[in-house]
Design goal:
The structure is a single chain. A six-stranded mixed beta sheet has the order 2-1-6-5-4-3, covered by helices on one side. It is globular. By secondary structure, it is of the alpha+beta class. The chain has one domain: Nuclear Transport Factor 2, Chain: A (Roll), CATH 3.10.450.50. Helix 1 runs antiparallel to helix 2. It contains three helices and six strands.
Length: 135
Amino acid sequence: MNERAEVLFANDAFYAAFDGGDLVAMDRLWARDSRVACIHPGWPALSGREEVMESWRNILMGESAPDIDCHKAEAFLNGESAFVICYEMVGGDLLIATNHFVREGGEWRMTHHHAGPCSLVPESLGEPDPPASIQ
């Protein structure tokens, strides 16, 4: 698998963990050796692994954990780091997100997630992206 596909696979794993409410998988995806941060829509910025993972525990274990689909994911590589820009459909809301990854121990691990409202629907948003492993 090429590096771009590996990053998209890690991004897909993030959305699968999010949509499936899988806290164990979500914890595995986040970096342990690099600094991490997260900005959920409408929340203040979170920094540090403990604070970020606590936010995911609250979201994924909450009574109204949202359904989420990822659309139009595009990966950008920069050596040992990469980021993905994509659109999220959460309920009926369209968000735009940036997910940042670094390579730790040969695996792409998330260091930053930022999602916020998107007022302009991109042309041909289409169906959710198929998993990177079958693209």
